[in-house]
Design brief:
The protein has 128 residues and is an alpha+beta fold. The chain contains 2 helices and 6 strands; from the N terminus they run ααββββββ. It has a 4-stranded antiparallel β-sheet, with no helix packed on it. A two-stranded antiparallel ribbon has the order 1-2.
């Protein structure tokens, strides 16, 4: 197997980006998190980033989702903007009046515990 290929360099770059984001989060935000449960959620977000990078290594032409975990306001437990595209228009309301956060451009749901999930294409705005 060839070492140092374009794909491997891209993966190494993404891994470096994830490590830098985690270090920045740890230094700037972890001290603010008092609850053990919230600290675990924050660390899980970072681990999910590493998992996503590993999946993207063999993404077969699909769009790789890169996000900024600092878009999540830990004190208020809300997203300030989309962690993918940076769009601040993420506050939505369901037909029943329930508020939620998500980005239709990146097709992600943003949880109040800091999680990021893919939208179900059979529901919501694009559903028929």
């Amino acid at each position: 197997m060839e070492s140092g290929g374009v794909e491997e360099q891209g993966f190494d770059s993404a891994l470096d980006q994830a490590a830098n984001e985690y270090l920045r989060l740890f230094k700037s935000e972890m001290a603010k998190i008092k609850s053990t449960e919230d600290r675990v959620s924050a660390v899980n977000m970072c681990f999910m980033r590493a998992r996503d990078i590993e999946k993207a290594k063999g993404n077969n032409g699909r769009r790789m989702f890169t996000f900024t975990i600092t878009a999540f306001d830990l004190e208020n437990r809300r997203w300030d903007k989309c962690p993918g595209c940076g769009d601040p228009d993420i506050n939505q309301q369901s037909a029943s009046g329930h508020p939620w956060q998500g980005c239709f451009k990146c097709e992600v749901l943003l949880g109040s515990n800091g999680t990021i999930k893919a939208m179900d294409p059979t529901k919501g705005k694009g559903a028929k």
